[in-house]
Every structure is written in structure tokens, then in C-alpha cells.
Amino acid sequence: MSELTDLGIAAIRDGVAGGEFTATEVAGAFNSAVAEANPVLNAFIVTTPDHALAAAAKVDAARAAGEALGPLAGVPIGMKDLFATQGVQTTAASHILEGFVPQYESTVSQKLWDAGAGMLGKLNLDQFAMGSSNESSAFGRVISPWRATGETAPRTPGGSSGGSSAAVAARIAAAATGTDTGGSIRQPAAYTGISGIKPTYGRCSRWGIIAYASSLDQAGAMAHDVTDCAIMLGAMAGFDAKDSTSLDLPVPAWAAGLSDDLRGLKVGIPREYRIDGLNADVAKGWDDGIAWLKDAGAEIVDISLPHTKYALATYYIIAPAEASSNLARYDGVRYGLRDLPDGAGLQDMYAATRAAGFGDEVKRRILIGTYVLSAGYYDAYYTQAQKVRALISRDFEDAFKQVDVILTPTAPSAAFVLGQKSDDPLEMYLNDVFSVPASLAGLPSMSVPCGLDRQGLPLGLHLAGRPFDEQGVLNAGLAIERRAGFTAKPAKWW
Amino acid sequence: MSVAPADVAKIAALARIKVTPEDLAAMVPELNGILSWVEQLGEVDVTGIEPMTAVIPNNLRLRADVVGADPLTGGNVRDKVLANAPAPEHGFFGVPKVIE
């Protein structure tokens, strides 16, 4: 039998339900794997082995009593440290929230515990989810379990959900939550050879998720494969009156609806994504994906999304603008860090606290956001960006009159070496070029692994669907997964 | 449009972030790089386009006007609200003196 930590959500749940092993054995195996790997990979900011064991004991007792088990019964997962977890430090990987212990549980994490999952710990991320490499965390960078062939240079697990992607890829968590504002689930999933889905904006409650850019933030699932993503997302999604943008719609039975028979499906290939100098391995992965979807019965259609080239600049106005407003709450009064210099008044305390508590990238985005919202610049920057966002969204609406899903690469390259892009914020932002447009339009989208590049590093393909059509995205993802035959895992070096 | 050190100092003051002269020297070129890059949006024809605020159409709901209808958000949780405050005093948030 393979090791318990090699198993994903469906295999663990079914094994526990069938009595092949107990949930307690599974939790113990993952707790040990976390304890061994975390000093090296730094995927978790805090570990919570007792939480995992307590959840497992409940599942084992429920099974012994013959009670019905939840869809994630006995599955130990990692929780991105952006979700408020009652009694467990929640930091957004920022010094300004170090020591913050929520008095309540986020809606999404509560739903996962109700489904039978247990928590291995709180996963590292880019500070306030602002970043694409996990290097902006105040608790140290996460090291990807993946290395290029014949190299030992530490690589990024992607960002912002880099602790999540590293933990799932290293098989020290069976699955993990992520949040996605401009690609923070999909890009790290692609960089680490796992699957990740961001649902339609509004599917998952934002209540209890530390806010970055509220019109874009969505929680989602990161897991071994498409089936596990469907199971986990189904447990996370659902209406919540405490989030004013929550969708009051039933949650479809995505896992039960999975099918890789794509006959009748039309797949759009947007010509604007064939950017100059597209990495040859990424281009080949994209071509493979087209062939696999054809093989599954889909029809391929060339489409145009004419405002694609403006998506990134639009994002880097709208997201910082919303962030500058959301992060105004960190003032040294109600929670988190307080820096009160001798003799300082209230205003000085605010400024000193925020200077000491926020990292460089967070400050950069707050300043950009403050600038584009300030008198005299608001219309030229912020209103203009909101109008271009409407055009980008309209491009997708037009495209979805012709096609059902859109296939592109997830990221412009495989994972880069840590430190390689940290000197130039603009170069870092370009990592999100393929994932940001779907975020701006609020579309369900996912990344699935498609192969390894010539350095032996994983690459991902990106599927975006119509609003509310997570099923179409998952099914196309499943068709790729079954044909790509991606089984590569990072060799254990830690 | 580009920003000078005095502009960045003003933005930082608006954002309530203390900056040193060294911070300013590093931030000015970075912010100018980002701002000159986002300028490209100015070339997009947006005639007749409404600014997008909500990406998925949704209606804002009103909840029933009942105190404490949701125990998580309904109030009467003073100690929980203050549990993470850096300087709680007598059931209030403590702040430095604001009246001379």
C-alpha cells in the first residue's frame, strides 16, 4: 500500500468510510510529514496538529456510531492564513497582525470543518495576498518542493497561495484552501503541478477572509486533481447572508456531475494570448491541451478578446485602490500591532504603526491606491480603469456567445528561482498576465497540470468559463487531466 | 503624470504611513515606473461605457431589522471585540490623548 500522505481527498474519504484506515491514522501521518518538512519548506506559519487529530477523532467516532460522514470526512487540509480561524493566530503573513487571534471562524473554514475536514495549520502566503512568488511574507519565503533537473536553487511555489501550493505538492497536506484576487490560486497551482479552482465571484463567502481587493477576492480549492477540487469547492461554496456579494444560488453537485465527454462543447482559443516571445514549452503545452480537448470531442474555435493587453494595468489600479481602503482598518487601535513613539499623538501612532507593520509591497500598493483615488486623479486613473474593466468583461461576454470555455496557459513560464524577480515590481506583476482577465470578469477558472518543461518543472493550463458554469470548467479540466497523464511529483529532498 | 518626492510624501501622509527620506528616495522611481505603465489605459476609447463596480450582477439585500438576529454579528460581544486590542481600558479601546 502506498503511504497515506500520497492520498488525496476522495481516496482518504473513501478509505476512512470503508474502514481501510482510520481518520486518526491519516491525521497522524500528515502531522508527521508536516513536522518533518516545514522547517525546510516554510509552508505553514503555525501548525495545528491537535486540531487535525481532534477532527479525525470526531470522524472516527461518527463512523463507529454508524452516522453519515461528510464529503471531506477524515481529510487533513491546510488553511491559508488569510481565513480567520477561531483561537488560532491569523496574520495574512503580515507583521501588523502578528499575534492576532480571531474570536470567530470564517464561513468557508467552518463549512470545511462541518464537512469533516481537519486543520494541519495555517499556510504561508504573500503578505495580504499581494504578490506572485510568496516572497512578500513577513514570516519568510516558502520554498517549492520542486527543483529543476540537476539543480538545487530554491524556486518559488507561486503566490499568493504559495504555502498552499507547496504543501499540497509536497504531499504534506491532502488539499488546501486558497484565495484568488488576480491569479493567486491558479498561478501557484500551475507552478507546483497541482489543480486549483477559483469559482465565480460570489460563490464562496468572503466573511472572515482578510480583505485585499473586495471586488475581486474569491476563495477556492487547491488539490491533487480535478475531482478533489470539485469535492472541496462543493463544501466551501454556498450563500451566506453575512457577505453582501454572496450569490443566493444553490450549489450544484459538481463532483457528481464530472464528465470528460466534451462532445458538443466549444473551446475558445484567444489569439491575443499568443504573446510575442511566448515560452516554447508553454506554447507546446497549450497546443497539447488543444489536441486533448479535441480528442475529448470538443470543437476548437479561434476567438478574440481585444482588450486583453489592458487587463494587467487595469488590475494594478483597481486592486491597489480597493486595498488602500480595506487596509485603512490597521490603525493600532482595535487589533494587531501598535507602535506608539514617546510623546506621540493619535495621528503619529497611526503612521508609525503602519510604517512598522506593513511590508514594502503592501506599502507600495497602498500608496498607488491612495494616489489613484485622490482628488484630481480619481477620474483619470480609477474611473478609467473601471470602464476598461467593463470592456474586458464585455469581451468575455461576446466570446461566450460563440464558445463554452476558454483555454490558455496559466502563467507565462514555469516557476522561477526565488529572488530572480524581486527587484522589479513590474516584472513580478507580469506573472499574472494570463490569470488576471478572468478575475476582472469574475469568471470561474482553474489551472490543471499539463506536463513538465525542459527543466523538469510543471506547467499548467488555464480554463475559464461562463459565470456560474464551474461544471464546464471542471469537465474540460478533467478531460485534460485524463489525457495529460500528469503523474510527476517532486522528489523528496527535504 | 509622474510624482516627485513631495507628492509621495503627501500620498504617504494621506495613507497614514510614516516614511523616511530614504524610503522616499526608493519609492519615487518605483511608483513612477508603475504609474507610467498604467498610463496606457488612457489610450482606450471608453466613450459611453459605464464604470464597472459589481462584476456579477447581484442585488444588495436588506436584513430583518432585528437586534442580534445573527449571534456572530449581532452585538453584546464586547470582550471578544476587545480581545485583540493592543491597549484596552475599562471596556474601551485605549488611544493616546487627542485633546491638549
Give a written overview of the molecule:
The complex is a heterodimer of chains A (494) and B (100). With 494 residues, chain A is of the alpha/beta class. Chain A contains 15 helices and eleven strands. An eleven-stranded mixed sheet of chain A has the order 1-3-2-4-6-5-10-11-9-7-8, with helices on both faces. In chain A, α5 packs parallel to α6. The longest helix of chain A is centred in the last third of the chain and has 22 residues, at 378-399. With 100 residues, chain B is mainly α. Chain B is built from three helices and two strands, in the order αααββ. Chain B starts with a helix and ends in a 7-residue tail after the last strand. At the A-B interface, α9, α10, α11 and α12 of A face α1 and α2 of B.
Compact description:
The complex is a heterodimer of chains A (494) and B (100). Chain A is α/β, with parallel strands linked by helices and 494 residues long.
Can you give keywords for this protein?
heterodimer; A: 494 residues; alpha/beta; Amidase signature (AS) enzymes; 11-stranded mixed β-sheet; B: 100 residues; Histone, subunit A; two-stranded antiparallel sheet
Q: What is the tally of helical segments of chain B? A: 3
Q: Main β-sheet of chain B: number of strands, strand sense, barrel status? A: 2 strands, antiparallel
Distance, first to last CA of chain A: 23 Å
Poorly predicted regions of chain A are none
Question: What's the number of extended β-strand segments of chain B?
Answer: 2
Gross morphology of chain B is: flat
Percent of residues in helices of chain A comes to 25-40%
The CATH topology of the domain at 5-43 in chain B is what?
Histone, subunit A
Number of helices of chain A: 15
Q: Assign the structural class of chain A, choosing from mainly alpha, mainly beta, alpha/beta, alpha+beta, or little secondary structure.
A: alpha/beta
Across the major sheet of chain B, the strand order is 1-2
Order of helices and strands of chain A: HHEHEHEHEHEEHEHEHHHHEHHEEH
**SS class of chain B:** mainly alpha
Strand order of the largest sheet of chain A: 1-3-2-4-6-5-10-11-9-7-8
Taking Cα atoms only, what radius of gyration of chain A do you get, to the nearest Å? 21 Å
CATH architecture of the domain at 5-43 in chain B: Orthogonal Bundle
